[in-house]
Protein 1
Amino acid sequence: MHLRYLLIILLASVMMVSACKEDGKVKPQTQEAKLPQVPVIELKSEDIPLSFEFSARTQGYKETQVRARVGGILLKRNYVEGSQVEEGSVLFEIDPAPYEVALKQAQAQLAQAKAQLSSAETQWHRTEKLFKEGYASEKTRDEARSNRDSLLASVQLAEAAVDSAQLNLDYTKVTAPISGITSLGAQSEGSLISTTGESSLLTSITQIDPIYVIFSATEGEILSLTNMTERGLIKNPDRGKDIFAKLKLGDGSIYNEDGKINFINPTIDEATGTIKLRAVFPNPEGKIRPGQFVRLIMEGLVRLNALVLPQEAVMQGANGSFVYRVNSQGVIEMVSVQTGLTTPNGEWIIDEGLNPGDKVIYAGLLKLRPGMKVSPVAAQAAEPNVPTQAQ
C-alpha cells in the first residue's frame, strides 16, 4: 500500500516538471503573439500631381465705355443691343449739320488766309528786289517780310481750324473702339447728347474672346509654392513655365477649353491677406460671360519625391503636427512633422520629419502612446488589434 502511494507521488512530480519545461518553451511565443497589431503605412517617395481649386469670377478681356466726343441730337443707333459688333463699325449717328457748317466756315477762312498770304509774298519779293537795287529802305523790306510771316502763321492757324472742324464732323459718327458684345443703349434716339457727364455715355462694349478669370490665393499658399519651386520640389513638366487651369461652371460641368495663369499681382491685399491672380481662357463660342461665378482648378504642377499620409494619420499637439512611427524594434515613437500641400484626394504631403521607409500608424491612434511595443502590419493586410487604454 505504501509502495503504491509512493509511486503515485513520484509519477505526479515527473508530470509537473515536464509541464513546467513545456511552459518555458511556449511562453515567449505566447507573449509575442499577444503584442497588439497596428496598421502602418510604409512611406515611399513618389511624384504627385497637384490640383488647387479656387472661387473665381469672370471678367471681360477688354471693357470700354462708348462716349460721345461731340454734342448734338442723337439721330440713329445702328446696332442691336447685346449683339456682337466689330471694331470700327458705326454704332451711333449724331446730327452732323452744325459741324458741316462749321467745316465750311473754317475752309472759307483758310482760303481767305491763303489769298492774303499770296499777296504778301508777292509784295515781299518785290520789296526785296527794290531793296537790293537801292530803291527801297531797310524798314520797308522788314515790314514786308513781317507781314508775310504773319499771314503764313494765319494760314497755318486756319488749316488747324479746318482739321478741327473735320474731326468734329467725323465724331458725329460714333464707331466701336473694340470688337465685342454691346450693352443696353444709355441714350435713346432723339436725345440731346453732351460731351460731359452721364449724358455722354452711349453704351459699353465688352470683348469676351478670350475671357479673363480673376481669383485669389492666400499668402501662405503662394509662399509655399514659391519656396518649394525654388527648392526644386515642384515642377511643371508639361508646359514649362506655363501653369494651366480648368473651369468648373455653376452646374458642376467642366468647361471644354483650357486656360493658363497669365498674371500674379505683386502686392498683397492688406484687408484679406490674399494675392490676386488672373487666368485667360479661349471663349470662341461666347459660353462664358463676364460676371459669372465659377471655380478655377489649377493643374499641371507636380510635387516631386513626395511622402504622402492620410489626414487621419497626422495629429495636432501643443507643438504642432506629429505622427506615431514604429521603429525597427517595434516601439512607437512620436515624431514631429511639417505638413505641406494636399493631394487631389485630400491626403497630406509631408515636407519635413519623415523619410522613405518609415512605418507610420494611421488608425486607432487615440489608444496608443509612445514607448509601447507593437506588431506593425502593412496597410493592405492590416486588421487593427489596438489595445485599450487599460492595456
Protein 2
Amino acid sequence: MMLDSKNKGMKIAGILHFTARETIELCENGAVLVDIREEYETAARQFSVKNLIFLPNSEFNEHFNELPKDKFLIFADSVGLRSKEAVKFLLKNGFDNIGNLAGGIVDWERGGYKVITDSSEMLHGQCTCMLRTDKGKKIGFK
C-alpha cells in the first residue's frame, strides 16, 4: 500500500522523518507504526495508534524480513535514534516505503498525543544496574 507522503515529513540524508502528528495521520490512513523499543521500555508506555507492530531492536536483524512490505512503515523508539538506524538498514535491504518518527515517544508525549500507560511498569532506580518497576521487577543491565 503506497500512501501519499509527498506533503508530509522531512527528508534528511535519504530518510523521511515524520512528526508525531504526521505519523498519526499516516497511521489513520493505513500506515503501520513499528516500535523497536525493548519490552522493558514498552511495558510502561505504548503508542496509542491503530496499526502497531512491536519488534524489539534486539530481535530486529532476525525478524525484519517478516515486516509487511505492502504497508507504509514508520519506525519508532524512545527518541528517534535507533529507529533511524533501523530505517537506514532496511533501505539497504530492499525496503523503500518507510520512514522514521522523529523524537520517538518522548516527543510524542511532549506533543500531548495519546499514550497507553501502566504506571506499575515505570522504571525507577539510581543507575541502570538497579532499575526496577513499582511491582519490584528488576531490569538490571551489565
Protein 3
Amino acid sequence: MTALSDSLMLAAPELWLAVSALVLLLVGVFQGDRSYSTISWACVAVMVTAAALVANGASGIGFNGLFIVDAYAQFLKVVILAGSAATLIIAEPQVRRLGIARFEFPIVVLIATLGMLMMVSAGDLLSLYLGLELQSLSLYVLAAFHRDNARSTEAGLKYFVLGALSSGLLLYGVSLVYGFAGSTDFLRLQGVLVAEQAPSVGILFGLVFVMSGLVFKIAAVPFHMWTPDVYEGAPTPVTAFFAAAPKVAAMGLLVRVLSDAFPGLAEQWRQIIIVASVGSMALGAIAAINQQNIKRLLAYSSIGHVGYALLGVAAGTEAGIESVLVYMAIYMATTIGGFLCVMAMQRGGQAVEAIDDLAGLARRQPCIAFALAMIMFSMAGIPLLIGFVGKLFVFQAAIAAGLVIPAVLGVLASVIAAYYYLRIVKVMYFDEPAPAFDDMAHAPSSMVLALSAAFASPLGYLAIGPLAAAAALAAKSLLG
C-alpha cells in the first residue's frame, strides 16, 4: 500500500462521515423537509458505523504528520460520536415542536461531528485549525437555527462574533509559533522546544494566544462570557449538543496540543491552566446560585465542570490525562440526561425554563423527577454516584502532581455548587406542585433518559472499570 492509501485508511471514519453528509444532503435537497426523520436516523446510523470503524481501525500517523490516530484519539472519537448520536435521537420531538424540523439540522450536526473527529486527531497546528473551524462554523449555524426567534438569532450572532475573535487569537498564536519555531508540526515543535535551553519570548506569546483560542472553545474563565447567553438563547436540543460532544472534543484537543506540541513549556502553560481552572470552578459555583433559568444554571454548571477537568490537565501526568478522559465521559453522559429533562419541561406544547416550574414534579411525574434528581446529585459529586468518581479521579491526580491548593479550592467549589443542584431536587420534591408537564411520548428519548439516569446512579459503577481501563490506555498512548 502507498503512503496515501495508508493515510486514507487511517481517516476512514472521517471520510465515511464526509461522504455520508454529502449524500444525505442530496437526499434532503430532492425530498425536502419531509425527509427530516429519515435523514436524522440515517445520521445516527452513520455515526454508529463510524464508531465501529474507529474501534476497529488501525493506529498510526498519516498525511505527513497532519493526522494522528492512537488510542487517545480513538477513545475521544467514540465518546464524541456517542454524544452526537444521542443528541440527534432526543432532538426530534423538540425540533418539531419549535418548527425547525428541517433536513439540514442533522446534516449540520454530522458535519460538526466530522470537525470534532479531525480536531482530536490533529497532528499539526494547521490541521488543528481546519477541524476546529469546521466544527465552529457548524455550531454558529446551529445556535441561530431557529431563525424566527429573536433569542436564537441573538445567540448565534454573539457566538459568531466572539468565536471569530477567538479564531483570530488562535491564528495569530499559530503564526507566532511558526515564525519563531519554524514549524507547525506537533512533533517537530516538541523537538525544537526540547533543544532550546530557554524558550524565546515569541514562542511564549504564541503559546498564550493559542491557548486563549482553545480556552474559549471549552468555555473556561476568562473566555466564558458567551456561554450563558448562547445556552439560554439557542434551541434546547442545540444547547444539549453544545454542552456535550463539542466540549469533549475541545478539551481533548487542548490536552493533545499541550502534551504533543508544548511539553517542553509545561511550567509555563501549567500556570495558565491553573488560573483558568480555579477561576472556572469558582465562577461555576458562585454565579449559578441566583439563576432562575435552568438553562443558564446548566451553562454556569458546565463552566464549573470544565474547571474540574482542567485540574487533570494541569497535573500533566498520565494519571491526570486519564482523569480528564474519565471526567469528560461522565460529564457528557449526565449532561445529555439533564438537558433531556429540560426538554421535557413543556406545558400545552410550550417550553418553560424557570426552575420554579419544576415545583412538585415528584408528585406529578415521579419518573422524570427521579431521573433529574440522580443526574443533579451526580453532577454535585455526591458519594456513591458516578459524578463523585470523576471528581475523585481529578483531585487525586492533582494532589499527586503537587497541586494541593488548587485541589482544595476545587473541593470547596464543589461544596458550594452542591447548593444549587440540591435546590433543584428540593423544588421537585418539597415545593407545592405546579401544573403538570406534557407527557414524554417519544420512546427513544425516554430510553436515553433512563440510560443517563442509570449511569448517574450507583449502577454507573459497573461501567467505571472498563471506562477507566480505556482511559488509561488512551493516556498512555498520548504520552508514550
